[in-house]
Write a structure and sequence with these properties.
This protein is α+β, with helices and mostly antiparallel strands. 42% of the residues lie in helices and 19% in strands. The longest helix is centred in the N-terminal third of the chain and has 17 residues.
Amino acid sequence: MKTNKIRVELGAYLGWAADSEKMNALTAEYPRAQDLMRIQDYNAVAKHIGLTGARKIKALAGIVNKVYEVGVDIGAKINSPAHVYEYMQAAGMALDVEYCWVIGLDRKNKVKMFELISKGTISATIVETRDVFKALIRHGGVAACIIVHNHPSGDSTPSQDDKKVTKDLMAAGELMGIKVIDHVIIGAGEYYSHTEDSVNKVNQAN
């Protein structure tokens, strides 16, 4: 989400002009939508925009994070990386460190299981192949899987480590008989799909 769009939408919510002094202070400190969703110290925010404004931002962040909780519905059919992003988009907004999840699918691409595999740092997460397949085998009935992780920076472009992890997991999947059909990286308003080998920007106008 671009800064000018943040100004317009926040202005409508807070009752401020998009070019007001308070708006300038807020967007200078928190230029991206995901920055606003991750605020921890609302007292510090209040120094810039007042207590009422800080409380409104906190309430908005709570609503957004609740509505867009990270998770995939068991039984849902996953037909594309875009479907994965629809379920997991909050990971690109609200999480300030990297997480890795696995989505287990049956032979009809319906979700059999969804599990958090690991939690890392702001720039990396450790994904152990054995942990991924242990989770898949434990649930049973899984024919394929999708690996998902987030980039707190908002940029979903894969790192060299990401590419190596994908290659290792796919090789292990061939041996285990559980195909790794994609590795999707969630950013802010975008996602990367290994299968499509591209970063896809998502229109957030609505």
